[in-house]
Structures are given as C-alpha cells and as structure tokens.
Amino acid sequence: VQLVQSGAELRNPGASVKVSCKASGYSFTAYYIHWVRQAPGQGLEWMGRIDPEHGGTQFARKFQDRVTFTVDTSTNTAYVEVSSLRAEDTAVYYCARPGAHDVNWGQGTQVIVSS
C-alpha cells in the first residue's frame, strides 16, 4: 500500500489550496481516506474523511465550512481543498487509510499560508 501526496504549497491568506493523495496497492474504493493535519508545535488534528466508493463525507466541526474532500476513482486519487486560507492553516497535511490491521499514511504535504 502506498499513499503519495503532492508537493509543498505556499499560499497567500484568502487563497485556496488543493492537496492530492494518490493511492496504490489496494482496492481504492474499499477503504475510507482520512485527512489529518499537524500545525507547527501542535498535535495531529483530524479533519474528516471520505468514502471513495460512494463519495460520502464527514468533517470535524471546525472544517465543515472551508474544506472539501473529493476523489477521482479513475486515478485512485483523493483530494482535500481548503479555501479562505488563514495563517493558522499552516500545517503538514496527511492522508491516511485505516486498513484491516494497520493505518497507512501519506508522506505529508507542507502548506504555508503567508503574505
């Protein structure tokens, strides 16, 4: 199982960013993809998850207005888009796939929000 994420991003406040997570080595539609972020000096923060088979989503309350989860099943890729970026959105963003016996993680994508 591999989850490969897109590269680092630098954005101005108020802009949007879209991070990708390309999955391989398993049946993409069989497992939820979760998104987690870690701000500098902070712990892991769960953002939500998407069901790649049906497209259903669930969000942590603080993200439900500015975050969108999507998937492209033709390329086995999941996406998270964060809009109206603020400085406090600066973090490393991770995708994760909880499997039957373990959790597989992407390598992380650094997003920096700064003017």
Could you characterize the architecture of this molecule?
It is a single chain. This protein has 115 residues and is an all-beta fold. Helix content is 0%, strand content 51%. It has strands at 2-5, 9-11, 17-24, 33-38, 44-50, 57-59, 67-72, 77-82, 91-98, 103-105, 109-113. Strands 2, 4, 5, 6, 9, 10 and 11 form a seven-stranded mixed β-sheet that branches. Strand 5 (44-50) and strand 6 form a beta hairpin. It starts with a strand and ends with a strand. The model has no long low-confidence stretch (mean pLDDT 97).
Question: Would you kindly provide a brief summary of this structure?
Answer:
Helix content is 0%, strand content 51%.
Which keywords apply here?
4-stranded antiparallel β-sheet; mainly beta; 115 residues; 7-stranded mixed β-sheet; globular
Q: How would the blueprint of this fold be written?
A:
Layout lengths: L1 E4 L3 E3 L5 E8 L8 E6 L5 E7 L6 E3 L7 E6 L4 E6 L8 E8 L4 E3 L3 E5 L2
Parallel strand pairs: 2-11
Antiparallel strand pairs: 1-3, 3-8, 4-5, 4-9, 5-6, 7-8, 9-10, 9-11
- One letter per element, helices H and strands E, the order comes to EEEEEEEEEEE
Strand tally is 11
The assigned structural class equals mainly beta
- N-to-C terminal Cα separation, in Å? 37 Å
Shape designation: globular
Number of helical elements: 0
Largest β-sheet summary: 7 strands, mixed
Uncertain ranges: none
Rg, Å, rounded: 13 Å
Helix content: under 10%
| Average predicted local confidence, pLDDT | 97
Report strand %.
Answer: over 45%
